[in-house]
Design goal:
The structure is a homodimer. Chain A is α/β, with parallel strands linked by helices. Chain A has three domains: about 210 residues, FAD/NAD(P)-binding domain, CATH 3.50.50.60; about 120 residues, FAD/NAD(P)-binding domain, CATH 3.50.50; about 100 residues, 2-Layer Sandwich (Enolase-like, domain 1), CATH 3.30.390. In chain A, about 30% of the residues lie in helices and about 30% in strands. In chain A, the strands form five sheets. In chain A, strands 1, 2, 3, 6, 7, 8, 9 and 20 form an eight-stranded mixed β-sheet that branches. In chain A, strands 11-18-12-13-14 form a five-stranded parallel β-sheet. In chain A, strand 7 and strand 8 form a beta hairpin.
Chain lengths: ~475, ~475
């Protein structure tokens, strides 16, 4: 091994080039700091290479294919000849990821951030070593930002090395469409996989574990999602214990106990939900006296600092949620704070979206959370079936639910499923951020006809004023 | 003619069942008033029966057909066999309009609003007569709301009664696809017709009149729209005088003078932009001493009252703009004010949308307006080509432009074109309504990956902080 004599010096070192890391690096560089970014694999992290981006591409392909069912409604003929070629979608996935990683590399270059390829480990709380093949280089830093993410592993005991037994991002690597995919899980990732493959034409079965009657959203949203899964002909087993998933010949035998008794399913493929395991092992955190939880996650403050205030951590490695949106926000905060700005993140208003049978979006308190926190609430839900624009696009499944505090009329939460729910969440985010009252939401004009009117009428309904609600 | 002896008595009479009228009626009924709604034709008005709804259905059919070009990108094969059957789309239009009008009728019934079929005219400022075939009934009222709308007529001299010479909503009545459609106009209605038929496969030419170099939006938005029209292969003649449009055999000969000289075009169909002419003639407004402008429009206050405070007017008949969104807002205000509430409308923050080559949305001040009003402004535009989600959906044309006041960082305007621009306008509407500062927009989290991030990065860019802007 060749050890570089000269220790490179940087204001800020960022370890990890996922969304948390590259946002941290660019924001710090925008604020005038000398920054280097160390990544051992490809820039973009799990999100860009394996998770968010592939999943949304698959969801979009699924939604597009499924929308063909209503082409006749718009006078468009010939849709029966449409079909999916999964290998072509895989090709597009590779192209897209390549383009996006190249885009991030270009952004790093534009902001004069040094790109270092290799594996980082702390030497002290002001030095990091980077190993790449035969070389080992030392970097001195003023501040460091850890953004090494996590690997996703199932918490179920599964036979490993089996092509028909999937977890994490495996489904997005398939070259052929599964005939019957059985999924064990209830998180948004599992829901997205279930919906995409169902739309492609795969038979899909979803198993919720013994603890779970439903999904982790507002109860009204859960009910509508359950209805749409049924409509999509996805069979859902609730409160079910997985006994085993055994590959046999050309299939997987899945044995389970539901409240209705013991059952065995035969599937072409089986998927188990994965949990994040922090990438902290090779970092030698002890050399910089950085504390971790027993599971290896790094606790952080609202300024994203670790117990060592010169060292920050952001994203999946911090166990603060596992959403790219959080990694991005924390990355910006870390970049700003490390560059000397006052900057904090607020874990309370974090949007959650999922591209299920229909897109789903949720921000603020659920009705149950609001009641649990002692609020007296008003709630209202507005069905997309009553929205004119949803009628025009023949996309009437779903609803918008809003929750406000009864006494003050201040908005507390937004939970929607259906066309436009993801785009409209920003309206709720803006209102929540500014402490908006219902009056602030219903006073302005909203375009007509538009899906935006579903938001307007949902909020009007809190005051008994929705015109189109039946 | 049979004259009813008994004068019916109502708290509030609404004349006209378009969006302005039915919103006024329902809102007043929600507030406990006895309401009757008089309509001489079909409920829903111009918007539902002829304009907004058909145009958005056609735009959606066009967008769907055009999206087929990128199906291969998602691995979906067989899209080359897709084509439009205009007569089937016409059938769907009729079904949709029928369903929506039935929906409004049901809402009126639910709110116990008496539906009166016939032509209304004032007898005094407390009585209206309604004529329907052989019957004439008298209605006494406390308050009346005029929502009779307008008819749309071209301000160009055109040969009338010619099937190939179109105006107003005529294009949405065509049963066969025009081969070459030449449009004379620059408003959002003309732009929507141009885009829809171009996507259906019609050759489209657009003529802007002598005064017009471009469109009535923010200049940056105009430039991007002009680029997209070119990309869509819609030929645009700017600053052009129409000499004549003469039907000849199976075509229309259109003669014009552009800055490049005199030209003659041959088209299968010609369309001329229409202007609203208020439906006030048969109302006998003088019997209630209601003043009109010389063109017949009814001036109103911010409470939607006419010069006679017991009588309100809303929508196209008031000449306040000609957008359904305004009619709806004014209708609600009229219903509330007539029912005794304090209610006003603010003409300043009115959103404008149009489903052109890509959807387009605009609210607040344009850059030119802001400068004209004496603001020192910051502006930023974020191209969708730099948004990851736009890459995923292969829908990268367009941009989001935001304008803020330099000194205060208060948002002044939002002008966007491209996928999601209509849905995201509500975020800007909410921020404008609450006097949001840029900090209020960039502090929260936005879902990743999503088109919503284009709004975030556009606003971050105002402070030089957009991560993905190149």
């Amino acid at each position: 091994m060749v050890v570089g004599d000269f220790a490179h010096e940087k204001d800020i070192l960022v370890i990890g080039g996922g969304p948390g890391g590259y946002h941290a690096a660019i924001r710090a560089a925008q604020l005038g700091k000398e920054v280097a970014l160390i990544e051992r694999k490809r820039i973009g992290g799990t999100c860009l290479n394996e998770s968010c981006i592939p999943s949304k591409l698959f969801a979009n392909a699924g939604a597009t294919l499924q929308s063909a069912h209503k082409f006749e409604t718009f006078g468009i003929t010939g849709s029966s000849s449409l079909s999916l070629d999964l290998s072509k979608l895989q090709h597009q996935k590779s192209e897209l990821i390549h383009a996006l990683t190249q885009g991030v590399e270009a952004l790093l270059k534009k902001h004069k951030i040094e790109r270092v390829q290799g594996s980082a480990s702390f030497i002290s709380d002001s030095e990091i070593g980077v190993e790449e093949q035969e070389r080992f280089e030392k970097y001195k830093f003023e501040k460091a930002i850890i953004a090494t993410g996590a690997v996703y592993q199932p918490d179920t005991n599964l036979p490993s090395g089996e092509a028909r037994v999937l977890t994490g991002a495996d489904p997005y690597e398939l070259e052929e469409l599964p005939e019957h995919l059985v999924l064990y899980g209830s998180d948004y990732i599992t829901l997205e996989i279930a919906a995409s493959f169902s739309k492609f034409g795969t038979k899909v079965t979803l198993i919720l574990d013994e603890e779970k009657e439903s999904f982790p959203f507002d109860q009204t949203l859960n009910r509508e999602l359950m209805r749409l899964l049924k409509k999509q002909q996805i069979n859902v087993y609730k409160k079910t214990k997985l006994l085993h998933a055994l590959p046999k010949d050309d299939m997987v035998e899945i044995s389970l106990v539901s409240p209705k008794g013991e059952t065995t399913l035969e599937a072409s493929h089986f998927y188990a939900m994965a949990q994040p395991q922090p990438n902290t092992k090779s970092l030698r955190l002890e050399a910089a006296s950085i504390e971790t939880t027993s599971a290896g996650f790094i606790p952080i403050t609202t300024t994203t600092q670790t117990n060592n205030p010169r060292i920050y951590a952001v994203g999946d490695v911090t166990a603060s949620g596992g959403l790219a949106v959080e990694a991005i926000k924390q990355g910006k905060v870390a970049g700003e704070h490390a560059a000397g700005e006052n900057s904090e993140w607020d874990p309370d208003i974090c949007p959650v979206i999922a591209h299920t049978v229909k897109p789903l979006a949720s921000v603020g308190l659920t009705e149950e959370e609001a009641l649990h926190e002692g609020y007296e609430v008003s709630t209202n839900q507005f069905p997309l079936a009553s929205n004119g624009y949803a009628g025009i696009t023949a996309d009437k499944d779903g609803m918008v639910k809003v929750i406000s505090e009864k006494e003050t009329d201040v908005l507390l939460g937004y939970h929607a499923i259906g066309t436009g729910s993801v785009e409209l969440i920003s309206t709720a985010i803006q209102a929540l951020e500014m402490g908006g009252r219902i009056e602030d939401m219903i006073y302005p004009y909203y375009p007509h006809p538009s899906i935006n009117e579903a938001w307007l009428e949902a909020t009007e309904g809190l005051l008994g004023k929705a015109v189109h609600g039946m």
